[in-house]
Design brief:
Arc Repressor Mutant, subunit A; alpha/beta; Four Helix Bundle (Hemerythrin (Met), subunit A); 55% helix; five-stranded parallel sheet; 363 residues; Rossmann fold; five-stranded antiparallel sheet
């Protein structure tokens, strides 16, 4: 399934991109409202994650435009605006769900799962074609009980055929389903992946024509016996290791950005203490505090997110230029620094793994 993230906070967007990618979704990211609107007009999406405070075109206007055109794709608003009035505005604009930053990552993924399940019949956990089995919960494929070693693209290509056994997919269709906008390979790439998948299936003992070519149109799974089973397998240790490695690398990359934002707030507090705070610096600090609140919430630093929101609110309320205000700002920034020194990654990692295991048990 294809998901669009419209989010101007690079840290949050990268986090969502990484985790959703590990769940085998195709994900596109737009950093402003105009780009998000253009992607929606050009491509089909199964779900849209939409921030409210966006450059160029805000999320509520995008939502209203889509619903006025009878656009039925589920929309999940993801924002730091948490008042009841804001929630009502979002839902009345046409959103299907509303999640406030900071959020529990497992809850967000569960809400995504629910919205996607509303699109069609319940998601099948095991897809079978003769002796070929694809297990969604462990992301494994077997033939006659023997494990096939597939690349992520080969896995998703096979899943596409198994879920749509009567449908013929052109190379262009397959590109739209399996590759994001940023990757945008040529159609020859599809041919190469089809060839590689056929070879691996053949080596495992499957018939050579299980993926057949419909001349002049595209490819499909050969018409034969097809069944589904409601089975459940435990998440394999190698899958956990892969998720942890990806999240660890992401956390290391995001730490730099988070510390950079904290430095902006520290410089602002110093400028206020010296009565040298310029309006441009004030606006930058307010935007920085807003983004910091969001990313700290994503990684489980609820208290840090709360403190960042307090800083943002100080700027929103006008920021009197006196020593008392300067002291309060310095104090909040100091507390934020303490929060960033906490060992947050293990808690975040465990929360994601818990969600994966819970999702497997539900499927």
């Amino acid at each position: 399934m294809r998901i669009l993230i419209v989010e101007d906070d690079e840290c949050i967007a990268k986090t969502l991109l990484s985790v959703l990618g590990n769940q085998h979704y195709t994900v596109d990211v737009a950093s402003d409202g105009n780009l998000g609107w253009e992607l929606i007009q050009a491509l089909f999406y199964d779900l849209i994650l939409l921030d409210v405070m966006l450059p160029k075109l805000d999320g509520l206007k995008i939502c209203q435009r889509l619903r006025s055109k009878n656009y039925q794709t589920p929309i999940l608003i993801l924002t730091a605006k948490n008042s009841n009035t804001d929630k009502v505005k979002g839902l009345e604009a046409g959103a299907d769900d509303y999640v406030v930053k900071p959020f529990e990552f497992s809850e967000l993924l569960a809400r995504i799962r629910v919205l996607l399940r509303c699109l069609s019949s319940p998601i099948q956990t095991v897809l079978q074609w003769e002796n070929l089995c694809l297990y969604k919960d462990s992301c494994e494929v077997t033939y006659n009980g023997n494990l096939l070693t597939l690349t992520p693209k080969e896995y998703r290509l096979l899943e596409l055929f198994l879920r749509n056994r009567h449908q013929v997919f052109s190379r262009s269709d397959i590109l739209d389903h399996l590759w994001s906008i940023e990757q945008a390979p040529k159609e020859d790439t599809v041919t190469a992946h089809i060839k590689g998948l056929r070879q691996k299936l053949s080596l495992a003992g499957a018939t050579n024509d299980c993926i057949e070519t419909v001349f002049g149109i595209g490819y499909r799974l050969k018409e034969t016996g097809f069944s589904t089973k409601n089975q459940s397998l435990k998440v394999q240790q190698k899958k956990k290791s892969k998720i942890k490695t990806a999240l660890s690398e992401l956390w290391q990359n995001l730490q730099f950005k988070t510390n950079e934002r904290l430095a902006v707030l520290q410089q602002t507090a110093t400028a206020l203490t010296l009565n040298e705070l310029a309006e441009e610096q004030k606006q930058k600090a307010q935007a920085t505090a807003h983004k910091l609140a969001g990313i700290l919430g994503v990684f489980g630093l609820v208290e840090g997110s709360r403190l960042a929101k307090q800083v943002e609110q100080m700027f929103q309320l006008g920021m009197p230029r006196d020593q008392s205000t300067a002291f309060n700002l310095c104090h909040l920034v100091g507390l934020l620094q303490q929060e960033l020194n906490k060992p947050v990654f293990e808690e975040f990692y465990k929360a994601v793994l818990n969600f994966v295991e819970e999702e497997d048990s539900v499927k």
